[in-house]
Amino acid sequence: MDADPGEITHLLAEWRAGSPGALEALTPLIYGELKTIAAACMRREPTNHTLQPTALVHEAYLRLAGNGGTGWDNRSHFYGIAARLIRQVLVDHARKHLTKKRGDGGRPVLLTEAVASVSSNAAEFIAVNTALDELLKLDERKARAVELRYFGGLSVEETAAALQVSAMTIQRDLRFAEAWMLGELGGQQS
Are 152 and 40 in contact (CB under 8 A)? Predict the structure, then answer.
């Protein structure tokens, strides 16, 4: 994260307040980090994947820019929302892929496997998304930890900082979330 966090937070606040030029000043500061998040997600994809990191970042950016700067309080919150939007773009891509090629039935899939390849595991990826939405209703922090870690590509320490808890708490949250989601995914696979 090369850009000054305080400057990003300041520009986000200006953008939210409707300051002309705030988005234009903010874009070069956040683009690199959005590209890093997208690249982390795409590293787990096959090399022949039809969605490239740049396209993923551009789609997420369009969704971020389209909301007029509302919905976040600071830089960490903004990147959390960006990670969620990247997840939504990947889910949308998986759904489109799934309409072309139905899944092969199923076995329980690990969270890391489903996130690892949208193209080859589109059905599982959508099931993970549904389970994550259910986890969000149950425990928002645990769901956000999964989003930031697996879809945002953040380290445990970065996830902890974004959610303002300790790294140990994030590790416990992730273990719980993975076990809970595995139970949910296993229940849907019969």
Answer: yes
In 17-52, alpha helices (H): 22-42
Q: Which amino acid is at 72?
A: W
Three-state DSSP state, 29:
helix
Query: What pTM does this model have?
Result: 0.60
Distance from C-alpha of 11 to C-alpha of 134, rounded to nearest angstrom: 33
Q: Are 60 and 34 in contact (CB under 8 A)?
A: yes
For 75-90, the pLDDT digits (tens) are 877 887 888 888 788 8
Matching residue, tokens 């899939």: 109
User: Which residues 6+ apart lie within 8 Å of 128 measured at CB?
Assistant: 109, 111, 114, 115, 181, 185
Q: How far is CA 16 from the centre of its chain?
A: 22
> What's the chain's Rg over C-alpha atoms?
17
5: helix, strand or coil = helix
Residue 172 pLDDT greater than 90, yes or no: yes
**In the predicted model, what is the mean pLDDT of residues 106-111?**
48
